[in-house]
Design brief:
The chain is about 40% helix and about 30% strand. By secondary structure, it is an alpha+beta fold.
Length: about 180
């Protein structure tokens, strides 16, 4: 393992590196081939969204981690699901101001616990114009929850599910700047 470089990646580079991104995603999340094919189409849509920003971590030519997000808008699957789960007060605080959706952060297991995830996180949020950011994280993913809490994220919803019998997630929020 060499020195890991982290740099911003354009939409085009993310799409070009999508097979590598999906390989890391599959390892980190333990997904089936079918689930990965579905994720591929979702990520392609994500890379085209308003306010997109992404970063990659590379060791030489090898992709070892990535992060990306975009500005949330009504009519998007995640936005609409989270909106429906929130109270009017939570919506006003977390979704009505323009918000950044922190969509993905993953680091290959061989490279975890080296500060790469933290750097990918920090760079992704640096100088964002949105006053708040939101993300979902599995409620049993203690390492990720710990990373986010150390960086100022708070739990907004503690029992969020994409389907009634689905996996339990936390919706977490972070105040990034003054609200309008």
């Amino acid at each position: 393992m060499g020195k890991v470089e982290i740099r911003e990646a354009s939409r085009e580079e993310m799409e070009m590196r999508l097979p590598e991104i999906l390989e890391i995603y599959a390892i980190v999340h333990g997904l089936s081939d079918r689930a990965i094919r579905e994720r591929e189409e979702i990520m392609k849509r994500h890379f085209r969204r308003r306010g997109y920003r992404g970063f990659i971590a590379v060791d030489g030519d090898r992709l070892v981690g990535f992060s990306y997000g975009y500005t949330g808008d009504p009519g998007q699957y995640w936005y609409d699901k989270v909106w429906a789960a929130m109270t009017p007060e939570q919506r006003k605080e977390w979704m009505e101001p323009e918000h950044y959706e922190f969509v993905e952060l993953a680091v290959h297991p061989e490279y975890q616990r080296r500060g790469i995830g933290g750097r990918l996180h920090d760079l992704l949020l640096k100088d964002r114009p949105e006053p708040v950011a939101l993300l979902t994280v599995r409620s049993d993913n203690e390492p990720a929850i710990s990373l986010y809490r150390k960086r100022g994220w708070v739990v907004v919803l503690n029992d969020f599910r994409f389907s009634p019998d689905g996996v339990r997630f936390f919706v977490m929020g972070k105040i990034m700047g003054p609200r309008q």
